[in-house]
Amino acid sequence: MNIFNILTEIEKVDGEVFERLDHISRRGMFNSFSKKAAAVAVPVMVAGMLNKAYATTSGAIDVLNFALTLEYLENEFYKKGVATVNLIPPTDQAIFAQISKHETQHVNFLLAALGSKAVAKPNFDFTAKGAFADVFSNYKTFAIVSHALEDTGVRAYKGQAGNLMAAEDKPLLQYALQIHSIEARHAAIVGRLLNVRGFVPGAKGWTTLAQGNPAAVYAGDDNLMQGGVNLKGLAGKSDAAISEAFDEPLTKEAVLAIAGPFIA
Amino acid sequence: MEKLQNDLSVVERTADVLQSSATRRKFLRNAGLTTAAGVVILAVGCKKDEPTTPAAGTVNLGSGDGGILNYAYALEQLEAAFYIQAVSTPYMGMSAAELSTLTDIRDHEIIHRDFFKAALGANAIQGLEVDFSKIDFTSRASVLGTAKVFEDTGVAAYNGAGKLIKDPGYLLLAGKIVSVEARHASIIRDLLQPLSTSFAGDDIIDNNGLDGAKMPSEILAAVQPFVKTPLSGANLPIA
Fold this sequence. Notes:
The complex is a heterodimer.
Chain A (H helix, E strand, L loop, with lengths): L2 H11 L3 H9 L9 H16 L7 H26 L9 H22 L24 H22 L9 H27 L18 H4 L6 E2 L2 E2 L8 H7 L6 H8 L5
Helix pairs in contact in A: 2-3, 2-5, 4-5, 4-6, 5-7, 6-7, 6-10
Chain B lengths: L1 H14 L4 H11 L2 E4 L2 E4 L16 E2 L3 H25 L7 H25 L19 H22 L6 H25 L23 H8 L7 E2 L7
């Protein structure tokens, strides 16, 4: 079986295979299908494609498009931040470059999973209608917005996990969880930087009660009820410690209310 | 898995001590021998994939969602015990900031542990006996290196177990905990390699920007050297 037969077979079950490959190739190769060129490039692309999962159920498409919108936002935010001269001090550039790399990877991963169902990238206003007017000229503001976006991401993915429980969505559930914990790693390191740089003294890698800025991002994170049980006093620990031990989800509506001002 | 094993072997080298009982157990298993109630049994003709008779004192994590919760409870027991030790016998040169961070993490793990114990009630597995003989608690590199492995392992364990959970409420609970483990991993990694890319390093994150995800069988094999009590995940869901 040659590579074109394989693609034809895949197309029988996945009518958008050529679109997906087109996206993965990012060269428009399949628009003017050149067999000679494709014979060289296709094996690599197929290998990449077979590692990915596709959203087929309407529920999964909704969830992934919601995630994609947030990832577009983060991706563009960091691209611009990292590229802005004299914004991020040299000591902290490695961290933000790494975060930026992951957000680009997440956008590409979700685009590949959604194929033609992917929503378009909105235009963004990273000042959030003026609330963070100096976001790309004041490192403190940039770091605070970064922290808020990461924690919003953590809470958003967490809130959607339950919508990916259909049998056919199980691979996507795992991928979503694998992105979710990356966002948490990002949020933690930026929280740590907020303290180290003196921007938010006492800020930690974890969320204490509902402390954080802007308040909407951290609303309800002081919850002590888990699995229907009030954990207050568990193991003799403080409310602060108990709240830190559990990250709370946000509804899609709450996330969109937070993200809304960032969309131009 | 290979990465995890490599990490674990680094920890082992740090401490210079090989775990003799786990080695012996492994040997017995490989030799087709298991012990039950003090009797040595020759498991004749036992195929590789067939469940073997569990060793004496083996804790069976159980099946279904309860099994997954016990699996999480076992991991949290291990983590809590580790940080309790790390905080009560601080390594040489531990700064006040590091003590504060490790104390926070200790408390989170104790809370996770006690939460699972309470949630499981009568279905909870017993308290596990840990084996930290390979860890040099006087050494910063050994303690933080082990913490890194435990946290990354915890993240991969929850990420891999999510799809095995049937109840949306339990899935959400796992989600609430896994991101805290990821935060720990990020901060511990930054303690080891400050201001570097390590907090979400290329050594553990793939080219799609995805964190680890491993099945219980892989995770249990990796953590067993740190748990004297033999653990069996033979009845855990696999899909």
